[in-house]
Description:
It is a single chain. This protein has 417 residues and is α/β, with parallel strands linked by helices. It folds into 2 domains: 31-148 and 288-368, Response regulator (Rossmann fold); 153-285 and 371-395, Rossmann fold (3-Layer(aba) Sandwich), CATH 3.40.50. Helices cover 39% and strands 21% of the residues. The protein contains 14 helices and 15 strands. It has helices spanning 2-27, 45-60, 82-95, 107-117, 134-137, 151-154, 158-164, 178-193, 212-216, 231-243, 259-262, 288-300, 313-331, 341-349, and strands at 32-39, 65-66, 69-78, 100-102, 124-126, 144-145, 169-175, 197-204, 224-228, 250-252, 276-279, 352-354, 357-361, 367-378, 384-395. The strands form 2 sheets. Strands 7, 8, 9, 10, 11, 12, 13, 14 and 15 form a 9-stranded mixed sheet that branches. Strands 2-3-1-4-5-6 form a 6-stranded mixed sheet. The protein starts with a helix and ends in a 22-residue tail after the last strand. The relative contact order is 0.15. Residues 1-27 have low confidence and may be disordered.
Amino acid sequence: MKVSKRIWVRSLLGAAAATALAGAAWAQGQPVKIGLLATLEGPFAAGGADGMRGAELAVKQRGGVVAGRKIEIIKASSDAKPDVAVNATRKLVEQDKVDIMVGPLSGGEGIAVKDYAKTQPNITFINGSSGAQAATLVSPAPNFFRFNTEGAQWMVGLGKAAMDKGYKRVMVIAEDYAFPYSQVQGFMSEYCRLGGKVPEKAWVPLGGKDYSSVIAKIPKDVDALLVVLGGSDAVNFLTQYENAGGDKPMLGGSITVSQDVLNYKGKRRDSLVGTLAAGPVADAYDGAEWKAFVADYKKTYPVSAGGFPSPSLFAYVYYQNMKAALDGLDAVKGDLSGGQAKYREALSKMVLKTPTGDVKLDANRQAIGTTFVTEVTKDAQGNLFNKVVRKVDNVDQLLGMKADEFKMGTRDVPACP
């Protein structure tokens, strides 16, 4: 009995000592490991590389240290496939032992990583740029945070802009996965309500090369095309549409007019000039904080070193989420003890100061923030950029609708044929 009691006391003392050591470690500045995941392969590789730049810029702005703790970034790559993203995340969490995850980039990846997060309750997951509605709207994970607005939120205002332009009938051409469903839902919810019609939708595979069959079935009586393709998919479609003599005006998905597409190496995509689009960024936004962010990006990543003339959507959104990760660490003075409970509470209550305005989270840890309606324009040097048509603040995930009115985007929802 006495021996058992001594063993019990030693175990108790040992546990207390371990807890004290863990607390001392963060207090004394042990590095914080942050896993950073982006798509560096596949159709979004250029955007993924710029996403990495944006995240690294947020760390650089703090001198690589928060609350006396060095920030150690461990990078991983995916290719926009959900299973690849989860495998890369699993390695960072289970083998590299990161404290915090930032990523992934693409919509389907975000849903898959959110589900994986539920199996790792002691790690905090913060989105990269994934914009699928379901990552936070359906069965949210208590340790998954998204400080960027998502794909449907990004399209608010574009439906009205299209109707104001006289585009009463529009064909949708979009990649066939969760993020474009969200983008189309955000556009059509408003567009259909205002009387617009969408007689045709073409859902194409991610990473597609041949768009000839899609181009061939574009109805003659549509006024414009809503194109929700990103990266090399967007460039392939635009090239083939130009070669086929296509002349329909275009409306752009958020990633279709991002800098990684507008400044893709090769022939200038002049067919995009005049394209109305919407998203979380506008290159020509004149806010002081935005201008300072752009100047810092351009100084750190000049075009000669692989940067773009203006930060892409991916650079900005990754910056935003990494900034939230670091601001949260600062708020708790680097304390990640107790299963990171204090850290998550700080993130949940945070009003994130960003270059485009304040961001706060809803009950599902989803951002409420700003959307821009934009128009593609060419500057004096021949670079394409997005000028501001309209700024919409405080866009929530239900797009201002009541819960019983809101329907998440799918291949078939919404519909206004």
